């Protein structure tokens, strides 16, 4: 080899090594500035053996069962994946799932995800739908850009197997969100979401579904004033929804859709446009805060970017809060007024009012008192259509009052916790049937109470007890229920071994007036008990042993007597 060639190769090698070292240093700096882990792995394996026996009724589960499970997760430069395996002798099936494959990496203002991603652009546009594809978020400074896309549903062909619900077309979806500002102060966002079924992904007759298409557009803003003392915001989603892609295409003049959308969305005879939106405002002062909200979902509104939407709804929310005596007294309330039948074309209109108020007194460090009141008003009114009234009107009113004092006594080594709960609830329903038909009105009153006491000793021993009582008086039915529970737990060997035991009794007395004013009484008693122990062999190995028993006895009247006993052993190792 010529001397000059050797020198040239040596120079090139030195330059390459220097470049590689510089690139490795830049890559190391990149890894330090990101949340990307070079390589991590972990998982666990476990074995559970359980036994079950019952006398008096049919088995609720298999007499014996063995379950094994193993899972492993790994992360390599931001790429994460895992495998989960489960085997149970109860169904004699082996299941292996590798559906949870994802990539997630962040560097400064850039976030990239791949695999099964779930983005949320707005309340009614893209909100929680899982997409198998990718997601990118960039938020340098006050700017925001989010992009997602992929397959949102896989094709499910019709089947006659048991447990089969319904078929589904393969569906592809994508969305974009642009914005400026900060979600903690003021901002403006604009997002869009598009989803379309592949109508040729499944074929056959009597599918009972139609391929659909959906396009949503959502402007979203928030304005913060007076250093956060006052905030106002709103978002409105316009949804263009085609219920059947097999329906005929129509011209723009035949549908009430803005011409801008028709450049990339073909309206059909089954295409409709509807709206849903929310608006809210809040005021926050030192002693007082107030929240106001309005929500409206037009009849027929649908969106493929979220789950089922209950349409034809209007709701107003009012939430005042008052704080006194350095937050020792807190008074809050949530008021919601709602109605349906927004277009007035249904045979009934439902109006409801929900009021939930809470008053909390922190009298001292050891004693507090919490009181709540709930009011529910539901009114369903029959509407007159074309001069005729069909259906019936009904109303329901419910009051719920609860008082909860709590006392904690802390000594140098012993702590006592005492709490009492008392409540009253009444429900009254009235019906107004059309045509003079007799109405079956209903009324109910309930009183509940519970007393709880627990003591913690310095030796690691805890004792707890509770007593409860409930009485209910309804039309023709009187119910009484009372019981108690005793429990204890103890930690051994520097809390490596924990043992707990519980025992309880509950009795239910039911008196019912039947036809001919005949009184029927039922008195049922149930005894329960449990024993649990868990031991940490090492920081990675542990096992648990659990025993449970339940006995049901009929003291008076009709019923089924039975006794159950079950136990389980579980071992788990983490790595």
Encode the helix/strand succession as letters: HEEEEEEEEEEEEEEEEEEEEEEEEEEEEE
Q: Let me know the number of strands.
A: 29
Rg calc: 32 Å
Number of helices: 1
Q: Can you summarize the main beta sheet?
A: 26 strands, antiparallel, barrel
Contiguous uncertain segments of 5+ residues: 92-99
In what range is the share of β-strand residues?
Answer: over 45%
Structural class, from helix and strand content? mainly beta
Helix content: under 10%
Name the average pLDDT.
86
How far apart the termini lie comes to: 55 Å
Gross morphology: globular
Task: Describe the structure in brief.
The chain is mostly beta strands. It contains 1 helix and 29 strands.
State the main characteristics.
single chain; 575 residues; mainly beta; 26-stranded antiparallel barrel; two-stranded antiparallel sheet; 29 strands
Give an overview of the whole structure.
The protein is built from 1 helix and 29 strands. By secondary structure, the protein is mainly beta. The strands form 2 sheets. It has a 26-stranded antiparallel beta barrel. The protein has a two-stranded antiparallel sheet with strand order 19-20. A hairpin with a 4-residue loop joins strand 11 and strand 12. About 1% of the residues have low confidence.
Itemize the secondary structure elements and their pairings.
Blueprint: H1 3-33, E1 39-55, E2 64-76, E3 79-88, E4 93-97, E5 102-107, E6 110-120, E7 127-138, E8 143-153, E9 170-181, E10 187-198, E11 213-225, E12 230-242, E13 271-284, E14 288-297, E15 313-324, E16 329-339, E17 348-362, E18 367-382, E19 384-385, E20 388-389, E21 393-410, E22 415-432, E23 442-456, E24 461-474, E25 477-492, E26 497-513, E27 519-536, E28 541-556, E29 562-574
Antiparallel strand pairs: 1-2, 1-29, 2-3, 3-4, 3-5, 5-6, 6-7, 7-8, 8-9, 9-10, 10-11, 11-12, 12-13, 13-14, 14-15, 15-16, 16-17, 17-18, 18-21, 19-20, 21-22, 22-23, 23-24, 24-25, 25-26, 26-27, 27-28, 28-29
